[in-house]
């Protein structure tokens, strides 16, 4: 696309980001993030910011994911979940609980219930609770 001077668009970059995150290509995620900033795609595009948070988490770069999250113009349940799942997937239970506890009161119960189901598995690797 670059050879034919086709400008990037958010949907294309989101697809490429997801592929990079799935294989842990942090260097590519960083380059794409820079392109998104260069082309002004971070200000109004919440989907792009959410995917970047998720991809930095998948690559194990949690500090950068949190920094990006903190600077998102628009945060939605996808943004919050991406960061919390990232902490959970990398066994940072204390960060999950701290983040969840600090923000649970401002979320609706339905959101909290869905998020809790994932975090419950942190304490039981087989996903079972006592009595099941």
Automatic annotation (TrEMBL):
InterPro entries: PPR_At4g14850-like_plant, PPR_rpt, TPR-like_helical_dom_sf. Keywords: Repeat. The keyword Repeat applies. GO terms for biological process: RNA modification. GO terms for molecular function: RNA binding. Gene3D superfamilies: Tetratricopeptide repeat domain. PPR repeats lie at residues 45-79. The keyword Repeat applies. It comes from the Eukaryota. PANTHER family: PENTATRICOPEPTIDE REPEAT-CONTAINING PROTEIN. This is Pentatricopeptide repeat-containing protein.
């Amino acid at each position: 696309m670059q050879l034919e001077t086709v400008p990037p668009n958010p949907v294309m970059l989101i697809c490429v980001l997801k592929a990079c995150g799935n294989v842990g290509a942090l260097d590519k995620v960083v380059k794409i993030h820079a392109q998104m900033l260069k082309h002004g795609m971070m200000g109004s595009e919440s989907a792009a910011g959410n995917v970047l948070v998720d991809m930095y988490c998948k690559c194990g770069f949690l500090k950068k994911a949190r920094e990006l999250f903190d600077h998102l113009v628009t945060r939605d349940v996808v943004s919050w979940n991406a960061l919390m799942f990232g902490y959970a997937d990398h066994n940072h239970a204390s960060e999950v609980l701290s983040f969840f506890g600090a923000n649970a009161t401002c979320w609706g119960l339905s959101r909290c219930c869905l998020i809790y189901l994932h975090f419950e598995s942190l304490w039981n690797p087989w996903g079972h609770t006592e009595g099941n």
